[in-house]
Design goal:
Blueprint lengths: L1 E6 L9 H15 L2 E8 L17 E6 L2 E6 L9 H21 L5 E6 L2 H13 L3 E6 L5 H5 L8 H16 L2 E4 L2 H10 L5 E3 L21 E8 L6 H7 L7 E8 L3 H9 L6 E3 L5 H7 L5 E5 L11 H8 L3 E4 L3 H8 L3 E3 L5 H12 L3 H18 L2 H10 L4
Parallel strand pairs: 1-2, 1-5, 2-4, 5-6, 6-7, 7-8, 9-10, 9-12, 10-11, 12-13, 13-14
Antiparallel strand pairs: 3-4
Helix pairs in contact: 2-3, 3-5, 7-8, 10-13
């Protein structure tokens, strides 16, 4: 059995799209005959504190569904203080540095990027050890950081990030990109680099539509995921206008905007918005099975970014209200998954909500069935993995 290592900053029982994405890759490679090992930090995300089972541990080795997971020490934090956040990132990088330097590693290694500094250290050491480096690029940093105004263009941090980005692309044996825009960006810097499209398709093992369309007239729209700067859910809550519409917004998740969202709802300004906190994936799927539409927002158009929620909820049968711009718009439109509102234009979003409010529950049920059936073909994870294996990517 051929062995492969995955290096990631997130892995279950941590929650969120990034952890789920890496787990699905690991499980699919294992199903296709690979012995898969994962190296990641001790579980702490998104709370920013070690989970109870990892407290007081320096490292932990565990088996999760035939995947060997090596968890290394990290100083966890979700502090808004930049120095504390850097200390947190540096702590895991230090653990990983010594692990990769002194431990025997397989010939093939998948490195998740971002985080950029983490992938830079991983790629640098692995290149010294002559490993086959498969760089999995989910977002373009530092470009995304500039668009989100997280760093200033031509600042010292921006210039360092550009250096790290160029090195990881150059040193990687080949690159997986989650969008065509990511591949175009990399090809603009290294035209001869082998790049492959790897969409973040989910694996649900669902053979029939499991959604329940309630008879009551209220249409339940939901957001589930990270409550951070990039998603802009707090601003969405401020700007969305549900007055006079038979629509509710239900929010599931955790992140830096959580407290402000809870305060907004508690103050009574948004009676049609309901916050439910973070749930594990199976519990979340059960809870949202009676909801009607998934909203997928981004604060601004981020070049290269395609939210995995499009594939996640499309495959469950949910119509999508997309509010993020970029390549995601093309996917929603071409696969007829629902509605697109121009990113950042809340008048357009509220106009789309007005259209949605006129739908009957029977019309929504037809949409769910059609979307579920089409997504089983359009977003086929097994077919995608088989293609990459046939191309000798892994």
């Amino acid at each position: 059995m051929e062995e492969i290592l995955i290096i990631s900053n997130y892995y279950p029982p941590e929650k969120g799209a990034a952890a789920n994405r890496i787990e699905q890759l690991a499980l699919k490679l294992n199903e296709n005959g690979y012995k898969v090992n994962v190296v990641c930090p001790l579980g702490n995300y998104p709370e920013g504190r070690l989970f109870d089972e990892y407290k007081g541990k320096f490292s932990v080795t565990e088996i999760r569904e035939n995947i060997t997971v090596k968890r290394l020490w990290v100083y966890p934090s979700v502090s808004k203080n930049l120095l504390i956040r850097l200390l947190s990132v540096a702590s895991f990088i230090m653990s990983l540095f010594f692990y990769l330097l002194f431990r025997k590693t397989p010939k093939k290694v998948i490195v998740q990027s971002p985080p950029l500094l983490l992938s830079f250290v991983s790629v640098w050491i692995l290149s010294l050890k002559n490993k086959k480096i498969i760089l999995n690029v989910s977002d373009l940093w530092p470009l995304a950081a500039i668009e989100l105004k997280a760093i200033k263009e031509q600042s010292i941090s921006h210039r360092f990030s550009l250096f790290f980005e160029r090195i990881i692309y150059k040193k990687a044996t080949l690159i997986l990109g989650q969008s065509n825009e990511i591949i175009e960006h990399i090809k603009s810097k290294f035209p001869n680099k082998d790049c492959y499209l790897y969409r973040n398709f989910p694996e649900h093992n669902v053979s029939k539509l499991a959604l329940i369309t309630e008879k009551q007239p209220t249409i339940k729209i939901f957001y589930a995921g990270l409550l951070g700067i990039a998603q802009g859910v707090l601003e969405l809550c401020h700007q969305i206008n549900l007055d006079g519409l038979p629509i509710e917004l239900h929010i599931y998740g955790d992140g830096s905007e959580k407290i402000q969202i809870e305060q907004l709802i508690h103050n009574g300004n948004k009676s049609k918005i309901h916050f439910h906190g973070m749930l594990n994936r199976s519990e979340l799927h059960q809870r949202i099975s009676t909801h009607d539409i998934a909203i997928v927002p981004l604060k601004t158009r981020i070049y290269g970014s395609v939210p995995s929620k499009i594939f996640e909820y499309g495959c469950l049968g949910f119509p999508i209200l997309y509010f993020g711009g970029g390549e995601g718009e093309t996917i929603v439109n071409e696969t007829q998954l629902g509605w697109v509102a121009s990113v950042g234009h809340y008048e357009d979003l509220n106009a789309k909500l007005e259209l949605i409010s006129r739908l009957s529950k029977s019309e929504l049920m037809v949409m769910k069935t059609t979307i579920f059936n089409s997504c089983q073909v359009a977003f086929d994870l097994d077919k995608q993995i088989k293609y990459l294996i046939d191309e000798q990517v892994f």
